[in-house]
Amino acid sequence: MEILGLSPGLLVLFVSFGFMVGVLFGFFGMGGSFLITPTLLLLDYPASVAIGSGLAFYFGTSVIAVLKHYDIGQVDYKLGAILFVVLSVGIELGSRLVFGLEALGIADLVTGVAYVVLLAGIGALFLRRAYNLDDDLDEAADDEDTVDDEEIPPIAQKIQSYTVPPMISLSSGGRASAWTITGAGGSVGLISGLIGVGGGFIRMPAIYYLIGTPLTAAVGTSLFAGLFSGAFGTFTYGMSGSVDLTVVSLLLIGSALGARIGSAATTIVDEDEVIVYFGLMMVFASVGIGLSELANWLGTGALDLVSVLLLVGSSFAVASMILYQVVTSINADETSTQPNPDSGD
Question: Structure pTM?
Answer without folding.
Answer: 0.66
